[in-house]
Task: inverse folding
């Protein structure tokens, strides 16, 4: 399907520049290279890393290891299935390195990153240059430097668009499996969907003691930044706790769907741990993004039953995330309206989440390739999750544009749909996958 933008052909250059080897940049480079185009992928690693990055490999997952739900009745589950059908490198890697996570798709984060890095380095049409880019590249190019873009390149982007916005993001701690007290935790997934999570049950007294300690704990300073505006989808657990005593019990600590088989009772609250690597040696604390000082993390999280002597493989951190005020500046291909051949992708555009970031790289890579080959652009349309995300970024009509996860709320409604949500979402998903299959058959 294509509409709204003219068919045009840019002058073919020797190579296409893709800036940034995160999820979006790797996906974009792969899509371009798979269509026979020559790509140079630039990344500042390993010579320079942002405060949130640790590994030398590409597509590093700096927060959770979960790509969230894998069910078609969930927006991100639908998005992942669409991307699988369009042959996404990120979904190839995720499916190859998945670890148990109930109804979610979680990965061995190091194995995931190694898989993508190996595929990028071995692709005959991709050349990798370890170099920090300080200026906007000349077209054809895709800028996918992520939400931690900084320095001269950030200044160049701000000058090009005339503004830049930001919010704050946080990551959850990762614990060693051997340091957990297995006499206190139990293994189960919600609603008897397997046994992939470790669960730390809390009594009412334990819960409220924990909340009081959490709300009083000392946070790390946010150096050189103004008072943060925190993204609701990645709220630090201590900020969430300050919204009310029962906020966590109705949020990440909700006990619904979980029964401790040892007592046959549902706990008052439950802290869940999700496997973080294929070997099962690491677990992250689900929903516990935090900006507490490291010592406070040891003290306060050590109050959770089963974590009294937990060893931290990685502490939670908070960092500044930058995104563009994209509506009106980018189109639904993620192309800059004012400069043909210059595209942006990833969380820098205002998509939020690992899968959403990769999806923007996929759409941008496909459409830049088509532009270079003189083919009409492909509009995945707002009937699909891929297209709905792109149209949200390009066409949001309000004055308070914020990063967005994929959800059924931004996908075109199904006419005369049943009121029952699962039935309605099933119909929307079936229609979306039908549209994807048609696009693949006719354009890809």
Result:
């Amino acid at each position: 399907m294509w509409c709204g933008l003219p068919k045009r052909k840019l002058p073919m250059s020797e190579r296409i520049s893709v800036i940034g080897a995160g999820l979006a940049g790797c996906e974009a480079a792969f899509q371009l290279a798979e269509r026979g185009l020559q790509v140079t992928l630039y990344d500042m690693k390993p010579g320079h890393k942002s405060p949130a990055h640790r590994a030398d490999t590409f597509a590093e997952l700096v927060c959770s290891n979960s790509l969230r739900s894998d069910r078609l009745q969930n927006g991100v589950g639908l998005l992942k299935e669409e991307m699988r059908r369009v042959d996404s490198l990120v979904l190839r890697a995720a499916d190859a390195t998945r670890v148990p996570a109930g109804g979610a798709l979680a990965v061995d984060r190091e194995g995931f990153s190694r898989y993508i890095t190996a595929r990028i380095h071995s692709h005959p049409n991709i050349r990798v240059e370890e170099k920090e880019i300080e200026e906007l590249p000349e077209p054809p190019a895709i800028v996918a430097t992520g939400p931690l873009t900084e320095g001269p390149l950030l200044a160049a982007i701000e000058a090009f668009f005339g503004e830049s916005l930001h919010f704050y993001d946080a990551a959850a701690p990762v614990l060693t499996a051997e340091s957990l007290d297995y006499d206190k935790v139990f293994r189960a997934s919600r609603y008897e969907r397997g046994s992939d999570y470790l669960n730390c049950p809390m009594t009412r007294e334990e819960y409220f003691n924990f909340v009081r300690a959490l709300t009083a704990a000392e946070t790390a300073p946010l150096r050189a930044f103004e008072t943060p505006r925190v993204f609701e989808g990645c709220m630090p657990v201590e900020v969430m706790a300050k919204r009310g005593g029962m906020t966590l019990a109705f949020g990440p600590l909700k006990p619904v769907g979980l029964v401790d088989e040892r007592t046959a009772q549902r706990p008052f609250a439950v802290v869940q741990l999700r496997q973080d690597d294929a070997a099962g040696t690491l677990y992250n604390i689900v929903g516990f993004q935090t900006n507490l000082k490291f010592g406070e993390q040891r003290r306060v999280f050590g109050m959770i039953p089963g974590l009294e002597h937990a060893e931290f493989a990685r502490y939670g951190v908070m960092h500044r995330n930058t995104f563009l005020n994209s509506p009106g500046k980018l189109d639904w291909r993620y192309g800059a309206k004012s400069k043909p051949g210059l595209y942006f992708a990833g969380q820098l555009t205002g998509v939020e989440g690992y899968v959403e970031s990769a999806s923007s790289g996929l759409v941008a890579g496909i459409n830049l390739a088509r532009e270079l080959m003189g083919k009409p652009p492909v509009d995945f349309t707002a009937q699909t999750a891929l297209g709905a995300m792109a149209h949200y970024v390009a066409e949001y009509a309000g004055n308070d544009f914020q990063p967005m996860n994929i959800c059924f709320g931004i996908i075109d409604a199904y006419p005369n749909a049943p009121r029952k949500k699962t039935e309605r979402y099933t119909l929307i998903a079936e229609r979306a996958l039908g549209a994807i299959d048609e696009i693949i058959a006719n354009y890809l």
Remarks:
- Residues 16-164+324-443 form a domain with the FAD/NAD(P)-binding domain fold (CATH 3.50.50.60).
- The first strand starts at residue 16 and ends at 19.
- The radius of gyration is 22 Å.
